[in-house]
């Protein structure tokens, strides 16, 4: 039973409830898959805090990926974070699936209220169902986007979690309209992020196309780098007053939004039972996918993502990790390099999309040399 002491007397969500929710979802994970949305205290904390965070994350995904759906199958929808953000991006037809009726009711009310403010008509359907149940995916419907927002990680905790999650994604893909995509958004914690990337690699191995953010079409080199490595996005955002108040009361840092995400397309493959194999141990990741440009002797032209924050080494060089056609490797410049500063090297941010012309060859990556040219590209440029 919920501990009613988690809610203060004025009815606002409490920092105690928020901390319990945070620990239960990203710490000990005791709440994952537990039906926590049916607890009014947890739901109130989620609505006040996590919904705004998730909406900002979805907004960034839309900005970086360039997706422009008009209809969405929102799976594990909760109180409608994904759908609410997509409403403001042009989606008008919604089908939300979640195991909590209370969460779906909150989502429906919020979508209708927001649509009224925008002066637009929307079509909303909801279904109370577990994502693994046969009736979770509506028959005979087609959607531009199937979205999983912070929910796949709650399916399974044992070695079978990969195949179970893959089954859900495969079923969702059958509900896509021609040219449709699947969006996966997960926490940036090491375990959840690596699991999401393992699923990404299984999809890629079966012929799915990565639309964003990856410019490397093969297996994820972050997984091959070792068990303590992963790849996640992060960005500053305008923190809403309610979120800031709760974060300060709970002692949480919310200046940045952090997540692991990707958008994939199954249009070029056949979804079948024979393709539902995912390695629980991540042994399917090939170490060869982690080579840098010097390992093959090829600098590799193309688009690269910045996949780290800037790091300063003892030698006075600032470096980032890049990921792209030549793998995952460092790109560095001297801290006092005026040309690098003029080119905007030191202002690069995580998940910026860049091209590099005439980089300097270094031991295991690139350096900013006398003839190096750096271009930061607008979102979606890699898709031509």
Considering the chains and any ligands shown, give keywords for the structure:
10 helices, Rossmann fold, 384 residues, alpha/beta, OB fold (Dihydrolipoamide Acetyltransferase, E2P), 16 strands, single chain
- Work out the helicity level: 25-40%
Distance between the termini: 53 Å
- CATH superfamily descriptor of the largest domain: Vaccinia Virus protein VP39
The low-pLDDT segments are 1-12, 268-291, 294-299
Q: What's the pLDDT, averaged over the residues?
A: 87
**Biggest sheet character:** 8 strands, mixed
**CATH topology group of the largest domain:** Rossmann fold
Run of helices and strands: HHEHEHEEHEHEHEHEHEEEEHEEEE
Computed structural class: alpha/beta
How big a fraction of the residues is strand? 15-25%
Principal-axis shape: globular
Number of strands: 16
What is the structure about, briefly put?
With about 375 residues, this protein is α/β, with parallel strands linked by helices.
Question: Can you lay out the helices and strands and say which pair or pack?
Answer:
Layout (H helix, E strand, L loop, with lengths): L14 H13 L12 H26 L5 E5 L5 H7 L5 E6 L2 H18 L4 E6 L14 E7 L11 H13 L2 E11 L3 H16 L3 E4 L8 H4 L8 E4 L4 H10 L5 E10 L27 H4 L7 E3 L4 E2 L4 E8 L2 E8 L3 H5 L10 E5 L2 E2 L4 E2 L5 E5 L7
Parallel strand pairs: 1-2, 1-4, 2-3, 4-5, 12-15
Antiparallel strand pairs: 5-8, 6-8, 7-8, 9-11, 9-13, 10-11, 11-12, 13-16, 14-15
Helix pairs in contact: 1-2, 1-8, 2-3, 2-8, 3-4
